[in-house]
Amino acid sequence: MPVEPMVPSRAPTGASATRSRARVNRAAEARILAGVRPLLPTIAGRVRCLAPALAALVLLAMLAAPATAVLQQPPPFDGDAAYAHVRTQVGFGPRFVGSEGHARQLEWMVAHLRARADTVELQRFTHRFQDGETRELTNVIARFRPDAAERVLLLTHWDTRSVADEEQDRSRRDQPIPGANDGASGTAVLLEIADVLSRHPPPVGIDLLFIDGEDYAPGDMFLGAEHFADNLPPESERPRYGILLDMVGDTDPWFPMEENSRAHAPELLDRVWDTAERLGYADFFVREDVPAVIDDHVPLNEAGLPTILIIDPDYGPDSSYWHTHDDDLRNTSPRGLEAVGRVVLAVVFEGG
To answer: Which residue in 22, 174, 276, 285 is a FRET match for 125, CA 20 to 30 A apart?
Structure first.
């Protein structure tokens, strides 16, 4: 995650928060009613045998039912299984573009996805880096229900940083970081979501995007996101929205509401945080606003694909583990992985 540590401001409360929730609820109710109304003639025919008063009550109950009554129950998500993917990735060593660990992870990740997704696309491209070298990068796109017109994009970056530029020990700053949180955590959540979706088909099409070249080094960042944004399909074929996961594996999860997300996809942001509260994760998904984070969602939002960011920007005391050698397994846990995985699946299965 290439951002500076941030100080949160006060969370929205009172009437403002109530209005945000009301907007989400009204939108959900409208989607449900739109889906039910075309079915009313068929339903009415099937209940002709009932007394008129009872038939009227059945129809009224269907129209008046809360939005969750006809939405799919989200499948379970195993945080420990996701954390096993973190361990596997860290076991490959540093995974910056051009490294042995990068190649090993790509092979393993693609095999994992091909065994579970309906289709897997490798989006290869090259980039001339600040050191003058040209290297090949690979975005990986795993699709579930690829023929579905209505789609959702879930994304994360899978590469790690080639330098520890925030390391206190200056003699170690030119060495690559382990990337247990910044790189492995979001990837682990999406890999486990792929496993879940292989057993529980989603109500809409799902694209899992694993972005390369997000965090190579200063001056060489967001490469995969920019390439993906430059090659989006026509607007009629694009996902409705995107949810970006970054640094979600802290031992003390804290996911505030980021300014770029609020500016480009406010209703989606409120919907995700409302879902987290309902699932019991209000202590993790806090209603605190933080300044804009420059991350992979920025190129997508600029290209017209509304995308929010779920991120814990406070990794370690005063973000002291960020872009250092302390970004290792000791400072990560399954807690945030499970919370994020459950929330994202609920958003997708309960409304698409």
So the answer is: 174
